[in-house]
Write a structure and sequence with these properties.
- It is a single chain.
- The protein is built from 14 helices and ten strands.
- The chain folds into two domains: 157 residues, Rossmann fold, CATH 3.40.50; 157 residues, Dehydroquinate synthase-like - alpha domain (Dehydroquinate synthase-like, alpha domain, Up-down Bundle), CATH 1.20.1090.
- With 353 residues, the chain is an alpha/beta fold.
- Helix content is 49%, strand content 16%.
- The N and C termini lie far apart (44 Å).
- It is globular.
- The relative contact order is 0.10.
- Bound molecules: glycine.
Length: 353
Amino acid sequence: MNKQEVIICEELKNSLTQAIGRCPHDRLFLLTDEHTHRLCLPLLQGLTAIGEAEEIVIGAEDVHKNLDTLAAVWQALSQRGATRHSLLINLGGGMVTDLGGFAASTFKRGIAYINLPTTLLAMVDASVGGKTGINFNGLKNEIGCFCPAESVLIETEFLRTLDDRNFFSGYAEMLKHGLISNQEHLNELLAFDTRHIDYTLLKQMVGRSVEVKEQIVEQDPHEHGIRKALNLGHTIGHAFESLALAQGRPVLHGYAVAWGLVCELYLSHTRCAFPKELMRQTIAFIKENYGGFAFTCKEYDRLYELMTHDKKNTAGIINFTLLKGTGDICLNQTADKETIFETFDFYRECMGM
Ligand code: GLY
C-alpha cells in the first residue's frame, strides 16, 4: 500500500489546491453529506477547483453507510462522466471518508481520492490509514478494502463547530493513541481541559495523535501485526456498540471505545500487570467525560456472543490487544468467557452501572 500524505493544514484552501495539483485528473468530484454540504463546504468557497467540481450529496450519519448509498455514488459518478482518471474529494466525517474511499477504490477498478475529514474521529482515525468500507448485513464495516487516499488534509478549524458528543467520540481514539504510544502524550490528553477547549493545543495534540497512527500503519498497512494495536478498547467496545444498536439506543463509536478501554485496561492490569494507578487515572477521565453504558448480567452472554463475531478473531478465538504499560503493547491476547464476565462485573462496579 502506498504511503498516504497527511497534512495538518495551516491554510486549507492552499493545501487543497496543492493536493489537487499533485493528482492529475480529467474531472473532479466532491462527495459531501447533508451536514457537510451545509456547514463545511462554505469554508472552501472561492476555490476555483471546488466551484467547478461535480458535487454528490448523500444522507448523513452511519445509517446511510450502506450498499444503497454506495450504489447512488457509483451511479452519480457513472452518469456524470467520471473516468478512470477522475479525482474524488471526500468532505465529511468517517462515514463519508469510509464510503467515499470505497466508492473511489472500486469505481472503474479504482480512481484517486483525497480525504478532507471534518470530525475529530475522522481526523485522528477514520480518514487515515486506508481502511474503506460500508456496513452490510447488520455488521459494521463488513464490506471494504484497504486503499489509501492520495492525501488527507486535516483542518482543525472544522472542530470549532463540532458538538460535544462528536468531540468526545473522536477524543476516545486519541486516548487510545496515547495509551499505545508514550506517557507524555497520554498525560497531556488526560490533563486537557475538555470543557474549555484550547484549540491551538488541540491542533498540536491532533498532530501527535495522527503521527501515532501513521507510524503504525506504515509498518503494517494490512493489519497482520502491529496495526492490531489500534484495536485496543475495540474488542469489547464493538460489542457495546452492537448491543446498544440492537436495543434501539445507539451510541457513538468513540463512546463505545472509551467504555471498551475501561474493560480492556482492567484485562491489561490483571493479565499483563498494567499499572493500577494509571488504569485508575484513565478510567476516572472516562467516567467523568463519557458517563457509562448500562447493562445487566443478563446481557453478558449476548455481549460475549457479539464479541465472537469480531472480524479480528481467528478460528473463533476472541483476540485482544492489551498493554503492559503505556506504549508497551501485548498483541494477540486471549481471555476465556469467565474472565470476560469478570471484566463486565468490574466495569459495572467501577462505573456505578
Ligand atoms: N481504526 C483502526 C485502524 O485503522 O486500524
